[in-house]
């Protein structure tokens, strides 16, 4: 999506909202909660042909925080692991 091509419909009508940063901080823009006291601002990429939206966290510190706090996908049932 960041390359300007929609992964859903292969249109090149992809627009980035990454430059839209409100001065109020992440609460003023699109954001996701990381923990009780932490949120991460999102850079949005929108395909204006099909409406598909992709969001990216651009702050490396927030990504590190998520890696430390969140459960890793596909690993929540560690007991059911069968030598994978
Ligand atoms: Zn599209």
Number of helices: 1
Number of domains: 1
Low-confidence stretches: none
Order of helices and strands: EEEEH
Number of strands: 4
Distance between the terminal alpha carbons, to the nearest Å? 31 Å
Q: Main β-sheet, in a few words?
A: 4 strands, antiparallel
Mean pLDDT level: 84
Q: What small ligands are held by the chains?
A: zinc ion
Structural class: alpha+beta
* Helix content bin: 10-25%
Which of globular, elongated, flat, extended, rod-shaped describes the shape? globular
Gyration radius from CA atoms, angstroms: 16 Å
Strand content: 15-25%
Question: Would you mind describing this structure in some detail?
Answer:
The structure is a single chain. The protein is of the alpha+beta class. It has one domain (1-61). Helix content is 12%, strand content 24%. It has one helix at 60-69; strands spanning 14-16, 31-33, 39-47, 53-57. Strands 1, 2, 3 and 4 form a 4-stranded antiparallel β-sheet that branches. Strand 3 (39-47) and strand 4 (53-57) form a beta hairpin. It is globular and about 40 Å long. The model has no long low-confidence stretch (mean pLDDT 84). The site of zinc ion (ZN) has 8 residues, from loops.
